[in-house]
Here is the input.
Amino acid sequence: MLGIRPEHLRLAEAQGSEGFEIANVEYLGNEVYVYLEPKAGDTLLIQRGEAPTRWSVGQRVALAPAPGHVHLFDNGNRALPLKATLAVA
Here is the structure.
């Protein structure tokens, strides 16, 4: 099982037609709420981030985990160790 807290999800460029369409961008002082409309279903998601943002209404985006904040669990709900790896360009 993969586990990640909602606050550790970031917006990223969507690949192809996958992901979410931005329905609204709401500025609240030093924060911004980006409202995400899924392709199917009626569950609207809200991503909270720091203002300003580069995202705008109508863009397609994906949710990407923040590095170091993904956790794996076995069938007994015990955390599995993850080895950190860095890619060098």
